Amino acid sequence: MASSAIPASIDHEDLFPAALVQGDNDLHSVTETVCGVLEAPKPPKAWYPIFGIAVALLGVLGAMIVYLVMTGVGVWGNNQPVAWGWPIVNFVFWVGIGHAGTLISAVLFLFRQDWRTGINRFAEAMTIFAVVCAGMFPAIHVGRIWVIWWVFPVPNQMSMWPNFRSPLLWDVFAVSTYFSVSLLFWYMGLVPDLATVRDRAKTKARRFWYGLFSLGWTGSNRHWHRYERAYLILAALATPLVLSVHSVVSFDFATSQLPGWHTTILPPYFVAGAIFSGFAMVLTLSIPARKMFGLEDLITARHIDNMCKVIMATGMMVGYAYSMEFFMAWYSGNSYEGFAFVNRAFGPYWWGYWIMVSCNVLSPQIFWFKKARKNLLLVFIISLFVNLGMWFERFVIVVTSLNRDFLPSSWHYFSPTWVDVLTLLGSFGLFFTLFMLFCRYLPQVAISEVKNVMPQAHPHLDDH
Amino acid sequence: MSDYHFPRWTDRVRPIMGYAAIIVPIYLVGLMTYAFSADNLNRGYAPEQPIPFSHALHAGELGVDCRYCHNTVETGAMAALPPTSTCMNCHERVRPESPLLAPLHESAESGNPIEWVRVHDLPEYAYFNHSAHLSAGVSCVECHGRVDQMDVVRQEESLSMGWCLECHRDPAPRLRPSEHITDLGWETTENRDVLGMRIIAEKNIHPREDCSTCHR
Fold first, then answer.
1. Buried b vs exposed e over A368-402: b needs ≥16 C-beta within 10 Å?
2. Where are the alpha helices (DSSP H) in A360-443?
3. Quick check: A291 and A226 in contact, CB under 8 A?
4. Looking at residue A2, what is its pLDDT?
């Protein structure tokens, strides 16, 4: 069909999406752009204040953990009946954010979504740092942090063994598997790029460190052949994890017999929410980062447009889950379930519920408009709203279900303490410290993969 | 500048890595199982006491019953250590001039107790009640060994949680009739399992295994 036959009402761009690499780039200039960030003698000016604040918050986190371990979990607001409180809210929040990485790198890879190449390195790094933050919370939440090894099946003099019927134990395995597979996937993808940096290195230290971690990569055909196989296998291994990890996290709630938790919708609802929040965090990070490090040609408006669509879709799935929970609470005829949901929306934490709904369900609706998807400032703000809304979703699930349990005499209004607040802020410090170091010292975009989707990589480029 | 190359010796490391991947985990598991086991860490503790009191002499040769000194063992959680006055019941007259007994007489005169070193020391978070075990028919010897043959008391068993649970899960072979409870050398021709099952039925014994039994 000739292009003249296209009706005028259809946007040209919808049929022929923009090239994945914009500007006047060839294979060499992509390498120059990405490596230029980490080869520059100094990072961009904005890097220093962000890194400084992140390290300061990391220090706050360290202080809070020391204070917690020295004193006990009483420094938090957790108390019966709300025994889970903020630490578990934060855990689910961070582990949810950690879902976009594997989705982008594994699932979109298997579905041959070429646009993933621009953002996958970014998203995978974010995944790993988010899972680090997530893993920290259950570990410190046990209170007696020195016996955390009890969660692993290690033979011991106490004849004590983890309870394999407990979803909390499944969680230990799910999250640690997810972390190791994500790390492996990320690192393996880095190897060819690290070798590129090694080959361009001007100092001895750089040559040594990038040389060590690029594992002797020479870029021979045999290397590439094995690399592609291994990448495919890892992608296939990681794909079920995208679904399984947050399903298992949801089991922590769904297998307990508490109204508001004990529902079968929880696993898909959690997975959709995780992808939703993960993509929001990728946007929150990539919109400023592409500008700061001059990667606008590689992480283009098309990438952001696609991510906005994913956010809109998953946001509506989450919205469907919210409404279906209410429908089931009414349809089941169970008065406890009914009360739990009325309490959620109109009880003492009504504000949490409505923040969640307006941030997660209403705010992404603006992405129906192409203009909104093209307005980077607006996209950035909406991504912040989604992050906020998803934190509140976990808060609503954990706190509103627990604070009014079966016995009205034990009802209790949960409020966080200053230690709760500073620990959450501190976890952002940990996340951004790791992320800023990544931005400065590792290639932020998968150089070799981006080159694969460029027209120059096409063998018939010239006689097209 | 030339490329970075891995030095030649790394080629020799590579084949060893395979063996290391097998041996290191085995070594670590072995270390955890044996070196850190309570059996090896706790057993055999035999501290020196202020007076070289010999249980082998008093409880063994002379046949003093355990309960003469540890008199609260059947009624209380603690098996009491005897006060100086208990020793003085005999040592007022027996070998009053012995230099080994000097701290005893000193204590009797001043009224300050002798600071004995505790051998069997359970952590504070573990609740243990002697009377409950004795009334069920668990003899002293099951946990403390043949104290009547020890010159210096030493810890025979690991006193680990796993060791406690072993008996709570299978108490029968460790039970005996109440009248032989302090007879450390007691033996019977009857099968201990059969005897134990009979005692369990008679006394309606249900050793509990839930956390709050011991961690209250």
1. eeeebbeebebbbebbbbbbbbbbbbbbbbbbbbb
2. 370-374, 376-395, 401-403, 418-441
3. no
4. 46
Which sequence spans correspond to the domains of chain B?
Answer: 1-81+119-216, 82-115
Q: Do residues A111 and A58 lie in contact, with contact meaning Cβ atoms separated by under 8 Å?
A: no
A residues 80-139 near B, CB within 8 Å? none
CA distance B179 to chain A (A): 32
The 10 Å CB-count burial string (b at 16+, else e) for B177-211 is eeeebbbbeeeeeeeeeebbbebbeeeebebeeee
- Contacts A201 to B, Cβ<8 Å: 1, 4
Tokens for A25?
Answer: 């780039």
Of B6, B37, B39, nearest to A216 by CB-CB distance is: B6
pLDDT at A463 (0 to 100): 59
Q: In chain B, whose CA is at the least distance from the CA of A205?
A: B4
Numbered residues of chain B with Cβ closer than 8 Å to any chain A Cβ: 1, 3-6, 32-33, 36-39, 158, 160-163, 165-166
Joined together, the tokens standing for residue B12 give 């020799």
d(CA B35, CA B28): 10
Q: How far is CA A177 from CA A181, A252, A404, B6, in A?
A: 6, 17, 35, 31
CA distance B103 to B50: 8
Identify the closest residue of chain B to A194 by CA–CA distance. B4
**Percent of chain A with pLDDT strictly greater than 90:** 50
> What pLDDT shows up at residue A180?
92
Write out chain A residues lying below 8 Å of B25, CB-based. Answer: none
Q: Residues 6 or more apart from A67 whose CB is under 8 A from it?
A: A75, A419
The whole-angstrom separation of Cα B83 and Cα B81 is 7
CA–CA distance, B172 with A405 (Å, rounded to integer)? 43
Each domain of chain A, given as residue ranges in start order, spans: 34-153+177-457
Q: How far is CA A57 from CA A126, A140, A281, in A?
A: 18, 17, 19
Does residue A448 register a pLDDT over 50? yes
Looking at CA atoms only, how far is residue B103 from chain A in angstroms?
A: 39
H, E, C per residue of chain B:
CCCCCCCCCHHHHHHHHHHHHHHHHHHHHHHHHHHCCHHHHHCCCCCCCCCCCCHHHHHHHCCCCHHHHCCCCCCCCCCCCCCHHHHHHHHCCCCCCCHHHHHHHHHHHHCCCCCCCCCCCCCCCCCCCHHHHHHHCECHHHHHCCHHHCCCCCCCCCCCHHHHHHHHHCCHHHECCHHHCCCCCCCCCCCHHHHHHHHHHHHCCCCCCCHHHHCC
In chain B, what is the straight-line distance between the N-terminal and C-terminal CA atoms, in Å?
Answer: 69
- The backbone torsions φ and ψ at residue B8, rounded to the nearest 5 degrees and listed phi first, read -55, -40
Distance (Å, whole) CA A96 – CA A274: 4
Q: Residue A34's closest CA among A234, A299, A245, A281?
A: A299
Res B1 pLDDT > 70: no
A198 in contact with B at a CB cutoff of 8 Å?
yes
| Surface of A (154-193) touching B: CB under 8 A | 154-160
Q: Do B162 and A158 touch (CB under 8 A)?
A: yes
DSSP designation for A463: T
For B90-103, the pLDDT digits (tens) are 999 999 889 999 99
Cβ neighbours of residue B163 under 8 Å, at least 6 residues apart?
A157, B38, B157
What residue type is A208 in one-letter code? F
* Cβ B70 vs Cβ B87: under 8 Å: no
Q: How far apart are CA A222 and CA A147, in angstroms?
A: 47
Tell me: ipTM over 0.90.
no
3-state secondary structure of A82: strand
Q: How far is CA B140 from CA B19, B159, B183, in A?
A: 49, 13, 8
Of chain A, the end-to-end C-alpha distance in Å amounts to 17
